[in-house]
Amino acid sequence: MRVAAALSSAAVLAAGCALAPRHDPAIRAGLGHFGEPDPSVVRTARLSIVCEEPERAVREAEALARVRGGYVERASEGSAILRIPNARLDDLLEALVGLGDVRDREVRAEDFAVHHRDLAVRLDNLERARARYLQLLARATDVAGAITVERELERVTLEIERLQAARALLESRIARATVEVHFASESGPGPVGWLLYGAYYAVRWLFVWD
Q1: Domain count of the chain?
Q2: Between the CA atoms of 196, 198, 204 and 209, what dihedral angle is there, to the nearest 10 degrees?
Q3: What's the CA gap between 159 and 74, in Å, rounded?
Q4: What is the model's pTM?
Q5: What is the CATH number of the domain that holds 156?
Q6: Which end of the chain is more exposed for a tag (fewer CB within 10 A), N or C?
Q7: Residues 48 and 92 placed together within one structural domain of the fold
Q8: Are residues 44 and 96 in the same domain?
Q9: Residue 68 sits in the same domain as residue 49
Q10: Could you tell me if 197 and 166 lie in one domain?
Q11: Domain check: are 67 and 10 in the same one?
Q12: Phi, psi of 31 (to 5 degrees)
């Protein structure tokens, strides 16, 4: 009976942390410099740049990220996704501008301070619950009670591991900003394009008179 009562108390504690309130992150958007990066803000940027040689520009963008302590997450013909230390984001954006004519630019920031704090509180509660279950397991006097405690202990441990992975991912996103850059060349129509262009106006002249 004592094991069952204590188990019930620990279960309430575990359920309480599972039901901890969750908050949607506040969204903030803007262009240009943000000043000193907030330690809880995830920053992302997207640029569309017109240049003469898109493939070469991709390689140059990758080099610009690497010399600033970043790396290439993914690259393809004419585009790249770069990860850069948060404090070097503005510096990288200024350097990318020099690769061509910027046609579109967007910089966004999401504040995850509340979410990060929520994860810390839930993990702390779960750690307390796990410690309590370990005490119950050590004092269990019957097989059925021990099995019940072990099941709850396993459940709480899995939840702790899940939240630890979520926190690690969030902290990785906070530490490094993401830059998605697309390059395209600006060129006129080729021979076939000019042929179709002329054919269109010839047909229009035959059937449409002002």
Answers
A1: 2
A2: 170
A3: 31
A4: 0.57
A5: 1.20.58
A6: C
A7: yes
A8: yes
A9: yes
A10: no
A11: no
A12: -120, 155
Structure tokens at 63: 């080099």
Amino acid letter, 128: R
Q: What are the tokens at 136?
A: 């119950």
Residue 48: beta bridge partners? 104, 182
- Residue 191 belongs to what domain range? 26-113+174-207
Identity of residue 135: Q
CB 19 within 8 A of CB 145: no
Walk along the chain (210 residues) and give the pLDDT tens digit of each residue: 444 444 444 443 444 444 333 333 332 333 333 344 456 888 999 999 999 999 999 999 999 999 999 999 999 889 999 999 998 999 999 999 999 999 999 999 888 888 888 999 999 999 999 999 999 888 888 888 889 999 999 999 999 999 999 999 888 888 899 999 999 997 644 555 445 545 544 544 454 454
- In the block, tokens 């530490």 appear at 175
C-alpha 20/C-alpha 8 separation (Å) is 18
Q: Which of 27, 34, 74, 60 is nearest to 178 (CA)?
A: 74
Torsion, Cα of 96, 101, 104, 105 (10° steps): 30
Strands 41-50 and 26-30: unpaired
Give the Cα-Cα-Cα angle 121, 170, 75 (nearest 5 degrees).
Answer: 175
Query: Same structural domain for residues 63 and 13?
Result: no
